[in-house]
Amino acid sequence: AVVSTQSTGAVEGCSWTNPDYFALMIANTLVGSWNRAQGGGKLIPSPFARKAFEQKYPQSYMSFNTCYKDTGLWGVYGVSEPDEDAVRKFVGAVQSEWRRITRGASPGEVQRAKNHLKTLMLAQCDGSTAVCEDIGRQMLTYGRRIPLAEIDARIEAVTPSVLKKVMEEYVYDRDPVIIGLGATEGLPDQLLVKFQQSSPLD
Known about the structure:
The chain is of the alpha+beta class. The chain has eight helices and five strands, in the order βαβαββαααααβα. α1 (21-31) packs across α7 (160-170) and α3 packs across α7.
């Protein structure tokens, strides 16, 4: 028996070296991640994670920003109950959150996401093996090791207005790709997905 529906919605992102990389990473952090086994409840920093906790229709979700040499994928992966209504609500809620961030995340929200992103990036370099992997990745993508001070400055340069501009360019009114595995009958039609990507109704 099918016990869940896995779905992913994504738009074209940017490459590793694109100036918009850190803005999309901050937007990715704003959307966040959540699963039913996670503590925090209504105290979770991410508004979308709090919504997921309160409404219960995803079992879990994870935002992602996957970059390549000259392009990228920015989106959300989620697991829902094998129920048409739950899947439809999850996809709609994801797009509603994308529109909310595009129309203007608060300065406090953006700063919290920036601080969280810095913490995550530093935590990834905990130990000599992780540091070596990070050096190798940066040499392959940037051709040099980027100092932590420069990374901090690039993150801090992303203001709410910069974030809004980047979201308008990459996410708002773009055609997302929606794919599913399992009980996919609840996945919305592509025309509806296109409409919801820029819908004024929230």
